[in-house]
Amino acid sequence: MSKPRSNRRQIDGVLLIDKPYDISSNNALQKARWLLNAAKAGHTGVLDPLATGLLPMCLGEATKFSSYLLDADKGYRATVRFGAATSTGDIEGEVVRECPIAFDEARLLQVMQQFVGEISQVPPMYSALKHQGKPLYEYAREGIEIAREPRNITIHALQLVSFDGVEAVIDVLCSKGTYIRTLAEDIAIALDCAAHLTGLRRTTTGGFQLSEAHTLADVEALDMAGREALLLPVDVLVQHFPAHTLDAASVARFIHGQAVRFVGECARMTRFRVYSDVDAEFLGLAELRDDDMLHPIRLLAVKQTAC
Length: 307
Description:
nine-stranded mixed β-sheet, Pseudouridine synthase, Archaeosine Trna-guanine Transglycosylase, Chain: A, domain 4, 18 strands, elongated, 3 domains, single chain, alpha+beta
């Protein structure tokens, strides 16, 4: 699938992919990169191979701003099967404990609400977190248990979509770093039961929705012009910051890393999306400091004609 590096091209933007089942996030990224013949690409948050759904991919200059999506809230639709726990917390693992299901929908809803808000969560052993440079899942496969420190996460919302007495479909809106497998297991423990995931689909990342995403097959079916048309502009990654425009003289200094005078009313926001007032080109992010100057903190490689 790989192309010679010399043949890859500089292409900038964000591609929203609906990751399929049973491939890694990195494999999905490399396939998309190959389809666009892009020189540089990165994704914005790993999905397990068994998980599907929204996987925003940053190409070219967009990779400079990928951290803003890595830190963004995420939404998931989880399918949870009660009555059995597995070694991995999902359907890939072996069943390690079974128990009767002695609760109804009303009790499930009651317990779910106990997990809304800021909670403490211990990361699972089957995760990519590292201990002494080695992923935890490698220790887990060797039968070694590593002590993990609990982490504070935030569950913004939990909604029960359906419950048939055994399997529940739950929509989760959460902060970064949340492990949905662990959340399902913890809810089950609070119900004096056990559970594991049978399905997981990411539905939102930051302001992006799964309905906006494209399958790899759909992207592959297009010609190159059609594929490029799917790319969103780089500045969609930082739309949560206010915009500020610069005149031509200020642009010339700004794109070379120099601070420029802030003109206008300050909304007491420290960071701004910065654009040229000549052609509305996105130049990068700046920080407004106490000296009333906009200091560049992340710049795009812009054309010198911008000034």
